[in-house]
Amino acid sequence: MNPFESKFLENLRRHNLAGRGDAVLAAVSGGADSMALLHLLAEVAPVAGYGLAVAHVNYGLRGRESDGDERFVRDACGRLGLECHVRRFDARGDAEAWRRSIEETARIQRYRFFEELCGRCGYTRIATGHHAGDNAETMLFNLFRGSSPGGLRGIRAVNGRIVRPLLGFGRDELEAYLEGMGSTWRTDATNHDTVHDRNFIRHRVIPLVEERFAGKLEPALRRMSEHAGELAEFVELHLSKLLREHPLLDIGGGRLHVATMRQLTAFERKELLKRALGAQGAPVDGQVLHRLDGLLDLQPGRTVQAGRGVAVTKKDGFLVFGRGDA
After folding, report:
1. H/E element holding 111?
2. Are 164 and 133 in contact (CB under 8 A)?
3. Longest dimension (CA), the chain
4. How many angstroms separate the CA atoms of 150 and 235, rounded?
5. pLDDT digits (tens, 9 = 90+) for 255-298
6. Sign of dihedral through CA atoms 261, 267, 270, 275?
């Protein structure tokens, strides 16, 4: 085991990402980040004590190139002696049918596939190849969209059974690791198309900042992500305590007691309103939050439309979340 693999193993253990008795399903596209993930997981598996298999998704978006990615991943798994699960989708056709973007459709498709495999084959962890650069892009993307502080947490290292063991590593490190092993990877030319916001941030914004502040952006965003994560944990604990102390703030039932809400800080009120919207399947939008907060001071009977068929009405001393006109 070389020093980089030892560092990877230490990261797995420190964050409890995968260990003895786990069955890890690695999501591998064939790109540099996922191939580095595959080789790192395979190298440290005997020491860490987990089982390993691979999932690859062919979206059919790039014709022969997509089929080439599939063959490449199958061949790599064959050399490593790993089972490779492959699923093909018509991402473009499904996107049109679902009226969603291709990117969102592909994300839904792959995670449904991964969860299906976990249920059928007993995998306990789903490992993805998100690295420090991806986290930086996500944080900047959220910042430019006007995200709340919680959005600056970026990509979580653990989210349910999904783990991201490479968040502490940069793409340059991962490519250097593969080159040192004599391993190759596939390149998706569409990743360089700056029409998409994330690609624009990756190829235009970040290099420009790095040109002025060399080597400082990614570490700074990594620290901010850690601080935002710590803040999010504190807020979650605080709100859980608040809800236990005030049973009239019924998030699940869609009823928030007006007098109690008015005693809270603006931050607490908006965090509770976010959770209430989420419980109803409504989008969390800054303008809607502002209007809902203002509803506390309006006359009974007033209603705010929150989106996706959800309406919030002030009546009988409560903000009542419901469908239609509530």
Report:
1. helix 102-121
2. no
3. 70
4. 10
5. 999 999 999 999 999 999 999 999 998 888 888 999 999 999 99
6. negative
